Amino acid sequence: MKKEEIVMGLYAMRLQGKNRVAQERNNTVDRAVELINQLDEPEQTDTNVGLSKPVIPQFVADYIEQSKKDNDSINQVFAFIDDKENKDLWHWLFPSMYEEKRANQEVFMRAWLYGYEVEKEKLYVVHLPTNLEDDLVVLDARGVIWKDTFPSKYKMTEQQIKDIDERYWAFAEEVTE
Hints:
By secondary structure, the protein is an alpha+beta fold. The chain has helices spanning 3-12, 20-38, 58-69, 74-80, 87-93, 98-114, 158-164, and strands spanning 55-56, 117-118, 124-128, 137-139, 145-147, 172-174.
């Protein structure tokens, strides 16, 4: 609640009239408004002060959005994570190393409370080997193989490549922009 909203609420409590009860109430309201106007902005004491929004993978963002849409409490959010149904989320939140586990859980909590930015997925081009020196053979997102001189237009995520065929991943090269 903002100071202005509190002040407006207090002014709404003022009484009409000149009797002693109305005067005492109105004096109290006026004094309360004076004190409120003297207040500094609230100090930010949470751990998010000065930090940018946490950056999380898309699957974590999707889970947070669905949980909030379902009005789940934070307790329910952690209780509902299943290592079979949400394998990627499970491994992200609960990796084998203790320090990493805690770090990702803290990132999740900050994202839940303060908002987040979605991690930009790395993009790759699949360059397939060929016998001809001058030919550049690439794979597109539909699994079609092309001979092309501009392979950067065939960018895909790791998951897109693996969805076509896991064996293509061995030929993937990260695109640097």
